[in-house]
Amino acid sequence: MKIKPIAAVAVVFAVLFMFRTVDAARCAATTFRGSYASANSVFVGKVASEKVVGDARLIEFSVEKYWKGPGTKRLTVSVYETMRFQSWFGIGDRYLIYATNGNDGLVVERCSRTRTFELAADDLKKLGKGKTPRR
Q: What is the pTM assigned to this prediction?
């Protein structure tokens, strides 16, 4: 069975396009400095509650300490979910959050440097002591 040259070229382009699309969905490595500079709020908090509103999952945090942001004891951040990105926050779990200002408040982006508290040791060392929320 002979493969026609035009069909072979079409298959090669289809495969290359498929891999290019998958790579475009990945996030570039985020640096501590860049993430801190672009964040409007940086804090450590424990997930107190969550609810779904449309394509967004609203996560309410009990803030333990903060470096940037309003300095309140409770903060809610939005995570916009898609087929490729689902929120991974768990009730009662602790996180280091890097959030930006969105149309409806704070947002955790898919490619943010946000991570579980257990995986945040390097960032926490760079951030230093932090402040205790007062209101």
A: 0.78
